[in-house]
Design a protein that fits this description.
The protein contains 13 helices and 18 strands. The protein has 527 residues and is of the alpha+beta class. The model has no long low-confidence stretch (mean pLDDT 93). The chain binds the ligand Nc1nc2c(c(=O)[nH]1)N[C@H]1C(S)=C(S)[C@@H](COP(=O)(O)O)O[C@H]1N2 and molybdenum atom. One of its GO terms (molecular function) is sulfite oxidase activity.
Length: 527
């Protein structure tokens, strides 16, 4: 008796046939997608559809819980569900082989429908990867389960007495698995060679010197406190929040930006080089996400290089509402179909609203919007910071709800004043005595004027503020705490330049950003 006879029962074999068929189907679909658009692959398309339909609260929870891994978790979840369904169909094939094969095809139709309905769908061809995969998967299931149901000589069992042809089954299944793996590998290689164009184009970008450089950081703007957020967030540590399951990789040389809509006298159609030919400005701007909890990590500060968007709009004949312009909302659209709505007034009021091409001295990283993104000081990212931008339409808030607004987030969302304690960490056990409490505070475009720390129920004590870079950046702060032994709660609050102190009222992130004060509990140990 060979090992296969000993270890594989007929039910397990059927489930395995289902699994291998599903695997082959997905592998073939991904190969087909590589020839059409990577985003048209079934896992990405279904994943995108799930992201778009996820209620705001759940999406927020996913960002909180899984952070930058939220998309990986989603895709693994889709694969796990697919695997379970595939095994169930394998079992079904023992009784109803045709129905089970048709079931595989049905799931392919779900993938095809998802791909066709993506906002960035490239047209009917996007259905092909799922359809090709589904056909192959259905055929594979039918063939692989053949030996399980046909070779059942009742009188003289040929293979160990349960009446199915193990040898033939294992040969076929092994071949299907190998074929799937080979196909998947080719698909992967094709995909990465396509993004190779974009990678080469990014490497070839030479950022011009800014016509208006950012002033040097004033002395004292960056504190040297262990554990504090560095004043400038390195690109590799900069938070990432977006709906893209596949990071768009757009070569700079094929990129275009169209500016059009209400009150535009002359449509603009710009190339990357057109942007670089403009007088570029370089500015430090702190970006924050509306999904950031009080004390959360979704804030970062970078030195951006870009063209002033307000000037471009003015050249196109756009007037802000305060000067009688008919459009109060600017809708930015990205290559992946995301839409973000920004007040025209804010973009044209003289602040440094940028079409950014550079981040901390290099071309934008792909994950942060290469080749071009928007950055507008003072507004949460979801109403201003369109990555992979390709279109700007002037319209009104009445006429159009962009992506997040359709999902219950506020149409307008200036950043709320916040202070965060970076050190000590929650439940840290510092030695009693002098402990440096430190962190960052932000109120972009208003500026931070005061940060105070409260120990337990004691009085508010003024913290030392680092020198301000600009009112569009966060400000570090520190406080020397004389810690007595025991458990203590440290709370922080900031006051912005309008004189308003950060509210103590707690609000969830939905619909326009969390409020409340950050506190941490620490246990000071007997020195
Ligand atoms: N195309 C696109 N742009 C986008 C988003 C997105 O999902 N797609 N997310 C926005 C949100 S919610 C935020 S907070 C910022 C985050 O920018 P970052 O990932 O570079 O930090 O990008 C904004 N721009
Ligand atoms: Mo965000």
């Amino acid at each position: 008796m060979s090992i296969d006879k000993a270890v594989i029962g007929r039910g397990a074999a059927a489930a395995l046939a289902g699994l291998v068929s599903g695997y082959a189907a997905l592998a073939l679909a991904e190969l087909a997608a590589a020839g059409i658009r990577p985003e048209a692959g079934p896992v990405t398309a279904v994943g995108g559809a799930v992201v778009d339909r996820t209620p705001a609260g759940v999406k927020d929870w996913a960002i909180r819980t899984f952070g930058a891994d939220d998309k990986l978790v989603l895709q693994l979840g889709i694969l796990a569900v697919t695997a379970l369904l595939a095994m169930a169909l394998g079992l079904l094939a023992l009784r109803r082989r045709r129905t089970a094969a048709a079931g595989v095809f049905l799931f392919g139709l779900v993938g095809a429908a998802a791909a066709l309905n993506r906002p960035d769908s490239g047209g009917p061809a996007d259905a092909l990867p799922s359809l090709v995969g589904a056909l192959a998967g259905a055929a594979a299931l039918y063939v692989l389960t053949g030996p399980l149901v046909t070779a059942r000589p009742p009188a003289a069992p040929t293979a160990g007495g349960t009446g199915w042809d193990r040898r033939r089954f294992l040969l076929l299944t092994g071949a299907a698995a190998a074929l799937g793996t080979g196909t998947g590998a080719v698909g992967r290689a094709l995909n990465s060679s396509q993004s190779g164009d974009a990678i080469a184009s990014r490497e070839a970008v030479v950022l011009p010197a800014p016509a208006s450089p950012a002033p040097d950081l004033p002395p004292g703007a960056a504190l040297r406190v262990p554990g504090i957020s560095p004043f400038t967030t390195p690109n590799k540590d900069f938070y990432r929040v977006d709906t893209a399951l596949v990071v768009p990789r757009v070569p700079a040389d094929t990129w275009r930006l169209r500016i059009h809509g209400k009150g535009v006298r002359r449509d603009l159609n710009l190339s990357f080089q057109d942007l670089l030919n403009r007088p570029l400005v370089e500015r430090d701007i702190t970006l924050t996400c509306v999904s950031n909890e009080v004390g959360g990590p979704y804030a970062g500060n970078a030195r951006w290089l870009g063209a002033r968007l307000g000037d471009l709009l003015a050249e196109a004949g756009v007037r802000p509402p305060s000067q009688g312009g008919p459009a109060d909302q600017l809708v930015a659209r990205s290559v992946d179909g995301m839409t973000l709505g920004t007040p025209v007034e804010d973009v044209m009021d003289g602040r440094d609203a940028l079409l950014a091409v550079g981040m901390n001295g290099e071309p934008l990283p792909f994950a942060h919007g290469f080749p071009v993104r928007m950055v507008v000081p003072g507004l949460y990212g979801y109403v201003s910071a369109c990555k992979w931008i390709e279109d700007i339409e002037l319209t009104t808030f009445d006429a159009y709800d962009p992506y997040w607004v359709k999902r219950a987030w506020a149409p307008q969302a200036p950043v709320k004043t916040q202070a965060r304690i970076d050190t000590p960490k929650p439940f840290a056990r510092p030695a009693a005595g002098t402990v440096t409490v430190a962190g960052v505070a932000w109120a972009q475009h208003r500026g931070i004027d005061r940060v105070e720390v409260q120990v337990d129920d004691g009085p508010w004590q003024e913290a030392d503020l680092a020198t301000e870079d600009t009112r569009d950046t966060w400000r570090q702060w520190s406080y020397r705490w004389r810690a007595t032994p025991g458990t203590h709660t440290l709370t922080v609050r900031a006051t912005d330049r309008t004189g308003e102190t950060q509210t103590e009222r707690r609000a969830p992130t939905l619909p326009d950003g969390a409020s409340g004060r950050h506190s941490v509990v620490v246990m000071a140990a007997e020195a």
